[in-house]
Amino acid sequence: MRKWMIIFSLVLAMMGSQQALAQQDYERYGRIATAVVKEDYTGEKLADYKYDGRKTLPGGQIEDAFTFDVVKDGKDVSVKVKVVHNPDKPTDLNISVNEVQ
Q: Which residues, 6+ apart, have CB-to-CB distance to 82 below 8 Å?
């Protein structure tokens, strides 16, 4: 019985560490996406943003998606940002920014 308790505890600890790593990734790529939007919309008001989620792409790449609400020339504009990265090469990023009508 004690052996199973130890195994169960280890499994829970590993699940918690994976969630913490995913949150760190989300925060890291969220900061990168925010910096890109602020650079592309210099002088415009960044009203809000939300994390749209993560997808696993072919070849081991991961896509984190964000939606930003920007006030551009007095009008509300939605901006979608996708950050594609490979966990094996953390410095290789592909960032796309698109206004949504």
A: 63, 64, 65, 66, 95, 96
CATH architecture of the domain formed by 2-100: Roll (3.10)
Q: Is 50 exceeded by the pLDDT of residue 97?
A: yes
The domain spans of the chain are 2-100
Among residues 39, 31, 92, the alpha carbon closest in space to that of 66 is found at 31
More confident site: 16 or 52: 52
Phi, psi of 79, deg, nearest 5: -125, 125
Residue pair 52/98 in contact (Cβ under 8 Å)? The answer is no
